[in-house]
Amino acid sequence: MLLAIAIFLTLGTAAHAMGGREDPLHTADRLIAEQKYDEAIIYLTDFMKANPDRFDEGQKRIRRIKEIRDAYNSAAALLIDTIVGNPSDEERKLSMIAQLEALERNPSSAISAFLASTKDLSLFSYNRAEFERIMLEGSRRIGERDFSGAAKTYASGFRLYRPEFETASLDPMTRSAALSTADNLSLALDAYAKSGSVLVSAFDALAAIYKNWVTGTAPAGLATAWDRCTEAASAFAKNRRDAMAAGKRLESFYALYTKATGDETESSFLPFAYRLVLGRSKGGALEGIVGALDAQWTYALGSAQSAIEQNLDRTLGLARQSYEGGQWQNATLGFQQSAAVAAEGLALVTLWSYYIPSDLQGQASTLGKAILQAKGGSWLEFGHIQQAANIWAQLAETRQKLAAADSAAANTATVASGSTQTNPTATLAGYTNSRNQVRSLRTVLEKLSTLSGEQAELLSARTRIGYASERSYNLQGFLDGHLAAALASSQEMESRIISAQAGFEYEQLASAFTAAQSAISQGQSYLNGLPAQYPDALPGAVSRYPTRALESLSGAENAFKNLAASLSAFIASYSAEPLFAQGFLGSWIERAKSLSTQAASSSGQLSRLASTAREQKRLAETARQEGALRYADAQRALRENRFDTARERLDRASERYLVSLSYEEDPVLRQEAFRSLDELGKSILKAQNDLVVSETRRLITQGKEYYLRGQFNEAESYLLQARGRWASTNTVAEPEVEFWLGLVQTALTVKTGRDIPVTAPLYPEMSQLLSLARTYYEEAKSLSDRRASKTDILAKLRASREKIELVKLAFPLNQEAGILELMILKLEDQARYNREFASRMESARASIVSGSGMSEAYATLKDLEGVDPAYRGLKALIEQAEVKLGFRLPPPDRAALNESAKLTADAKAIFDRRDSSRYEIAKGYLIRALQLNPNNEEAARLKDAIATASGGDAELVLPPAAEPIYTLAADAFAKRDYPTAFRNYLELVTKYAQARKVQKVIDLAKRLAAQGYSE
Q1: pLDDT for 812-837, tens place per residue?
Q2: Which residue in 614, 635, 623, 611 sits closest to 669, CA to CA?
């Protein structure tokens, strides 16, 4: 080791740079003064090489360094000899280290570490020995009850490591706070001594009062003495907390120090200081300043506790004698006094709660653990005595009531078990009250049993830690025998009540089982269908509710789960009842097991029904979704003006929604979906009606044009198209269409028989006959023009007339035959022709005037026109006939024209105001205007505008409740049960007036009418 030190002393660590421009040797002197010897030697060596003329000056300084190093080496050698030869002489080692530090404050790092380590070990060993001496001396003084002297002895140890702590590299504020804490605690010790003296005096006075307490009431002066004690205890406990807080602060400063430096060794001021205050963490003896205060506290409170324990021995003995002798009142008073004295003991022990914040909360201190061991046992003893005494007072009273309670409990159990009440709550209350009456006595005994068990545990724990209580053991044994006797007398009574209650609970569980079964039945009824509740439901109609079924079944499932749990709990609970009651409970437990098996067997049925309900719900949802899709299709078709598709999709959506409702009744769907369908139907009708009005107008115009040209067949065709087009969105016929169609069809009626249609069965034969008649006439006329033989001419005319007569047999009014017949007469006999022509014309005039035979008269006039259209008065008479027949418009009437214009203006005023509530009135005005003036184009245009604004009056959707009635009617018609179909039809249109506007209902009415069933 000497060789290692010599190497460290002679080797330099780094070259020193040259100084400034001042005398270079000043730098060497400074380095020597700062004890930077290695740097000085390197510097001087470089200096002497650079300045040989000043070699002696440099050499002189090197010799000085060598002398210091020699002295340092000598001291180091002595230190090493001491370490080797006398290692326990810590004080000498510390002195030699101080000498070495004075010779060289900045040795090499290795030497510095060596010296520091040696110094730390020596200083720690020295201070540790001194610390042990102080702790031993303090403990001795505590044992001699010199509590103040002990505290001051501990405080004397604050000098240990203090010089090192004062110069340590530590936060100045932390260092100052730590030193101030120790100094302030030393200054407070005199005040602590005075407080301790007051504490001892107060508790000695209290102990004297406890010794003399012989009556049931609290002694005079007890409250005052107790107040003095609590005041003294509070003040002393505050001093003790202050001392504890000072120790904790010193301990926390040490934690900060180790965290800041990373040095966890205890060779410093702080770990010694906080232990001098708090004592060491291990070991059961009280030590340290705080331990001295704790010892004084223990002594003061101990004298009072001893007095209380003496008093308890006396009062408990008297009370037990009274109880054994059956003197229940004296026993009660004696135990009450014992409880009061024990309560004082509890209060006294409670003063130890001053130690809770500092010694029992968080990490328990040595004293805290001792308190738990010693005072915990005392507290348990006082608590046991107080509780036991109070229980004995109750037990004496209970013994007097037990015989009467036995009779009352037996009667209650009998009444409850044989009760005919139908109110479960009342029955349960009866059982509960009956059992409570019995248990009101048994509860006291059970409380005693519980407390007895607790006391036994406490006694066992106290025995294990060396604090067995003779008083507690005696009292415990005294209680146990009487408790056993009282409990035995109540067992049979309680058994009967438990059995009755078990029977009632079983009936409740059986009722729950029945209710769960009922929920399954309810779920099944929801699936099978309940009488329909929606408005206007048909008699016998049902609604299915799979969702409600699932809810009911889910409720049943939960009920069975709860029932299973309840049965399991019932079985477990009553199986766990006391053995003395098992003989009464066996049958109920077996019945509960059987009921549990029945409940389990219901799961299969419930599962199947739930599966059916889910499928029914799925079908309802699928149909509802399909209805929504068809509804969307209808909306899209409407946007694209595909009205037939829109109407078909609307019908499909309605049908799908009805299917959904057949699987699951949904009031919201029934109301909202069909409201949406109705609205969409109206939208379809409105949009379609706009086109219908326009198209109808076009067809009317075409029909009129053909009519005015006399092309009645073509006119009828267009007007019939107009009627059909209008009927697609309206149920009321369009008056203008019907007006012109009436004219056309009247004209066609008049013309019936005048022409032979190509489609007529006799058309070929009639055409041939007419052709021959014309041929014969032409031949006769040709002969007449050539002035041929009269006989030949008449023969040809006779042949022609024969063919005409054949035609008129089938078609008497045939126009061609009639004209040809007149032409034959004219060619045959001009004079007779003139008379016949005039006669026919007058006959036709008479018929027109009288209004009889109008068709024949008109045919005659047209025949005459065909022969001589320019005959005077003929054209006017034909026009008169056509007007009267109704297929020619009368000549304009100024009054009618004016009235038509006025009605049109009135209707226009309504329309211009958009007074939709009066549109029907306006339409009436316009219909009348067109009747007065069929050519009133303004009225026609305005009527179309109102029809467009109003929309069609047809309906596309039946109300949901009407669909079943229609279905019944349609099914009956398909089965040819026409009376039933008609009866259902009448019910439908009576309940739902709008049904008359739905096309399928209209079609059904037509089919029924075809079978002779009409309204």
Answers
A1: 777 788 888 888 888 888 888 888 88
A2: 623
- 10 Å CB burial of residue 2 (0-12, 13-18, 19+) is exposed
The predicted structure's pLDDT at residue 9: 37
**CB-count exposure of residue 453 (10 Å: 0-12, 13-18, 19+):** exposed
Average pLDDT over residues 31-37: 81
**CA separation for the pair 47, 86 (Å, rounded):** 45
Place of tokens 């504490």: 199
Of 314, 327, 346, 316, the residue nearest 479 (C-alpha): 316
- Asked if 399 and 326 count as a contact pair (C-beta separation under 8 A), the reply is no
Question: What size, in residues, is the chain?
Answer: 1015
Q: Summarize the confidence of residues 412-438 as an average pLDDT.
A: 63
**Residue 754 and residue 742 in contact, taking contact as beta carbons nearer than 8 Å:** no
Which among 727, 639, 636, 627 is positioned nearest to 677, based on CA atoms? 627
- Give dist(CA 731, CA 403) in Å, integer: 97
User: pLDDT digits over 877-889, tens only?
Assistant: 887 777 777 666 7
Alpha-carbon distance 305 to 294, whole Å?
16
Q: Which tens digit of pLDDT belongs to each residue from 449-480?
A: 777 777 777 777 767 776 667 777 777 778 77
- Tokens read off for 651: 């019908």
Cβ atoms of 280 and 287 closer than 8 Å: yes
Residue 821 and residue 776 in contact, taking contact as beta carbons nearer than 8 Å: no
Residue 675: how many CB atoms within 10 A of its CB?
A: 12
* Residue that has been written with the tokens 């040795």 in this structure: 107
Burial of 731 (0-12, 13-18, 19+ CB in 10 A): middle
Q: Match 């005392």 to its residue by tokens.
A: 378
Are the C-beta atoms of residues 156 and 138 closer than 8 Å to each other? no
Phi then psi for residue 50, to 5 deg, are -80, -25
What are residue 183's phi and psi, to 5 degrees? -65, -45
Residue 695: strand, helix, or coil: helix
Distances (CA, A) of 341 to 196, 319, 729: 26, 13, 106
For residues 79-105, one letter each, b for 16 or more C-beta atoms within 10 angstroms of the residue's C-beta and e for the rest, the string is: bbebbeeeeebbeebeebbeebbebbe
For 412, counting Cβ atoms within 10 Å of its Cβ (0-12 exposed, 13-18 middle, 19+ buried), the class is: buried
Amino acid at 820: L
Collect all residues with Cβ–Cβ distance below 8 Å to 553 and sequence separation of at least 6: 519, 520, 523, 606, 609, 610, 613
804-813 tens-digit pLDDT: 888 777 777 7
| Cβ atoms within 10 Å of 957's Cβ, excluding its own | 25
Is the Cα torsion angle 782, 787, 790, 792 positive or negative in sign? Answer: negative
| Rounded to 5°, angle at Cα 34 from 32 and 39 | 55
The structure tokens 């110094």 sit at 119
Whether the CB-CB separation of 774 and 820 falls below 8 Å is answered with yes
Which element (helix H / strand E) includes 762? none
The answer to whether 319 and 389 are in contact (CB under 8 A) is: yes
Q: Which residue has the tokens 């200054």?
A: 187
Query: Is there a contact between 968 and 663 (Cβ–Cβ < 8 Å)?
Result: no
CA 70 to CA 93: how far, in whole Å?
Answer: 19
Looking up tokens 């008497």 gives 812
Q: Of 287, 296, 304, which Cα lies nearest the Cα of 349?
A: 304
Which of 855, 860, 859 is closest to 837 using CA atoms? 860
How many helices and strands in the chain, by DSSP H and E?
Answer: 36, 2
Element (H, E) at 710: none
Please name the residue that has the structure tokens 């097991």: 593
Q: Note the pLDDT tens digit of each residue in 49-91.
A: 888 888 788 888 888 887 887 777 777 667 666 665 565 565 5
* pLDDT reported for residue 152: 93
Q: How many CA atoms lie within 13 A of 710 on its CB side?
A: 3
Q: Where are the beta strands (DSSP E) in 202-269?
A: none
SS3 395: helix
